[in-house]
Amino acid sequence: MMSIEKTSSKYEKPIPLKTIDNKPYWDAADQHELAIQSCEDCKRAIHPPGPACPHCGSPTIEWINYGSDVTGTIYSFVMTYVPMLPGFQHDLPTIIAQVEVDQMEGVRITANLINAAPEEVAIGKAVKMTWIDITEDRALPQWALMK
Amino acid sequence: MWDLSGKYAIVGVGESERSKNSGTTPLHLALQAARNAIEDAGLNAKDIDAFMSYSEHDSCTSHQLATYLGVRPRYVKDIMGGGSSTELLIADAVSLIESGQATAVLIFRSMNGRSGVRMGGGGWSTDLLQSAIEGGSFIIPYGMASPSQWFGMFATRHMYEANLTQEHLGHVCVSFYEHAQRNPKAMLHGKPLSMEHYLKTSHLSYPFTKHDFCLETDEANAIIVTSAERAKDCKSRPVFIKGIVAREAHPHAHYWSDLSQVAADYVGERIYENAGIQPEDLDVASIYDCYSWVVLRQLEAYKIASREGLGDFVAQGNLKMGGKLPSNTAGGMLSEGYTHGMNNVLEITRQLRHEYKGTERQVEGCELGLCTGWLGPDAAGAMILNN
């Protein structure tokens, strides 16, 4: 596993672990961009990324960068009033939304919905991807309601 | 239809004391449960030649249990697992006996689920969680580490599509708590739940309140499986395995990648054909209830109600005594206790034996029961039992 530098920041929440399969996703996130794996054979998008295509089993996969203009609609969500992991006690409730991404078919990305009140959250609402710098060299993709 | 239908039976069930703090080890609890199951079957410990368990590193081993029952086992197996492991191991027991590896199998789950290792979580290394869970890096950094959130993500979407409200979750809770009032051994015996009170309870993790969560208890359960032939030597009334689907899985190990389906959908496709019956034939059920919503989703998966009819099904009291399908009649994991599903299997076995005959707890004349297991949206199993 990669070592993680936690000394540069007081960020208490878990930092995404980069692995052999997901590194391009998190490397792009650090640059405030979205990269998604795609199957070269069946052409379908793959998320989360893995060592092969889960749709057809093909080992031939590529990465496509979608840049920083990423939008979608809320597909489902939970709102948690007790912290389940370190760091989440500071901004309860933890709102976690799974979002259908407009830019590619079949991809739903889960992240926190930030700067939203519980009563504003609903399935079908439009959101935009935004990136929060969590350490000097790491950034975390999040969702924000379109105003 | 399954060609072993009716050829194997549950002949013994037993449990330990149930509490919030056992003050003892899982091995002691497992010994209590095993002795009670053996006594219930009218067997001697030495008649059991195979021992199997499931746990999440919070139990004793099968070999330890056999040792202190004074038995040298021919076969021991301990698997990692939670919900649906009972059905998985019962199917394994049938295979072992059928292939001549064993003649009588004892399966147990023992846990200090409240005073020891709690399923609700806490205290794990977050790096470990990210590595241990498929696609863990895509949920753990967002604070999504509890089954209430994992299943809740499915629940919110499903409730939206099926027009289910908080009140419908409440009907599941109220129905099962009502059963617990007839069960003096239930943790929430003496603590009935009204819909009014339920609806006033705040969310722990939307869409779930504390009533929608299962309990955490210290407890062990044990089940003995043998052949129908051998069951004739037992003192208990055998409950036969009419059909079983040991396990089905979601298409993706990162099951959040598709919230529109759960593993139980695949079990529901096979179980009735396997047992040679229809959903309408069922008299009683034990439906895995780690959360209230999980019951609603399984009612759909097992074709007991249509997606459109789910809300009405529970609102009409069909899970209660006298309803279309009295379910989790000891109170279920929501209000009786929690041994990762096995307590629900004990209860349906007792119902099908008519052990409560003459009391208001008996589902009058029941002959056919469905017992479901839910590890999560990722894996599930079920069996159909008859007397």
Automatic annotation (TrEMBL), chain B:
One Pfam family it belongs to: Thiolase_C_1
Matches recorded under Gene3D superfamilies: 3.40.47.10
Gene Ontology MF annotations: acyltransferase activity, transferring groups other than amino-acyl groups
Ranges for domain Thiolase C-terminal: 249-376
Listed CDD domains: SCP-x_thiolase
Record-given protein name: Thiolase
Organism encoding this protein: Lysinibacillus odysseyi 34hs-1 = NBRC 100172
